[in-house]
Structures are given as structure tokens and as C-alpha cells.
Design goal:
This protein is an alpha+beta fold. The protein contains eight helices and ten strands.
Amino acid sequence: MSLSKELKTLKDFHCDDRCVLSVYLNTNPGDPDQLNGAWRIHLKSGLKRIDEYIKASNDEKELNDFTELRKKIEKEVEDNKNDLSKGVVIFASLNPELWAVHYVQVPVKTSFHWESHPVTEEMEYMYKAYPEAGIILPSFGEVRILDTAMGAVIGEATYVFDPNLEGWGKREKKDANETLTGSTRDDAIEPRLRENLQRFYKGMGEIVGKLKKERGWQEIHVSGEADLANAFAETLREKPASCIYKNLNNSKPSDVLHQVFEK
């Protein structure tokens, strides 16, 4: 499910009484306020305040439901403590059942909410700033594509041009730690193929158009050496949200995201 569709589902989710716990937790290691894993303290204190509020209402069922969700959320974040990025967003309910967890690469302001519906306003703001987007990295003979949402890479593939088949073949990335390399040297492709680069990119532009529809991309960003980036951008039906004149083909996904969204 695309993030835009998930947000709509969350906004439509309601229960008769308070049953939804919404958690926004800042875990950014680069934030001075998060030194020495301070997010643990903020998580426990935020949940404790809600716990005290529910106890004061003397609703045993509500307290039992909250206590179960509290334990589940604390375990979720602790189990993933070594993989935390800038923030965690969680929406949880027991009845009706709801469990949505997002580890995001965008700034998150810590807050906790116990309501009859998911509190999505902050998530919607984050999504507006960092929507689902495709990042296209063209080079001679191959095009690397990052499928992103909320400032994080959720998929990656490289399309390599096969001069024998006169078409593009998809090469999936097999390992998250693998760095895909692409040829950008002028002598890496035969003169005949270099002359037909625009035609090759046109075919790839059609593939990107299909991916945009399938993946629900709100934006497309292109990055590469100036002549290659411009050549590829011209093949797209819609003007890209940005065209960056930097060769990022051999860069880590996190570095590409930084250059595109936080430049």
C-alpha cells in the first residue's frame, strides 16, 4: 500500500472510545537532545503521562488496552534500537486492530496521543515535505532508480542497456549494503551507441513513466552529469521536480537522499 493510501486509511479509522495510541518519537542521533539514547527516557515518560491520565479516569478496560499497547510499542522500538534513523511514527489499537510502524529519515517532533482516532496531522505534514518520489540517476549505458517515501529508500533497481538486444534489462539490487556501480567514462560506450543515447533514454523514460504510476510517485528527481541529466529529463512527460548536476551513481542511498532532499 502506498503511503498516500495508508494515510487515507488511517484518517478513516475511528472507534467509539479512546483506543488509538499515536506515537511520534525523535530518535535522531545527530540531535544534541538525543545524546546517549535519550529517546528511551522520552518514550517512557510520554507513555507514563498517558498511563497516569487513564488511571485517573478509573476505566479498567481502557487502562488494560493501553497497557498492552504500551508494552508492544516499547518492545518494537527497543528491538530495533540498532536500526533507528531520525524518527519513529507508530499508530496502534487493539480493537479495532491497528498496527502501523514507520522508521523515517525525516525530522520528527516527539509527541504522544491517546484518542479515538489516529493523530495524523504531523505525519501528513512530513509526507507533504517528503512525498513518494522516484530518484533517477542516468549514466552511459545504465539508469539507477531509487524508490523513496518519507525521505527513505524503499526500493532500488538499475536498468542496463543491452546493445545486442537494443533494449533495457532490469538488474535488481540484491544486498542493501551493495553499492551499484555504473559506467560514466566517455569511452565506456561505443560511439555508435553514444550517438543514440537520446533514443535509449527515451525508452527508459517510458519505463519511468510506468513506475511513477505504479509506485504512486508524487515527484521525480533526476541527478547526473549535466548533459546526461538534461538528456534524460527531456524524455519525461512531466518536468522533474529537480534536476541536479551531480554524478551520484556510485553514492550510497543515504547520500543520494541528502543531496536531493536536503541540499
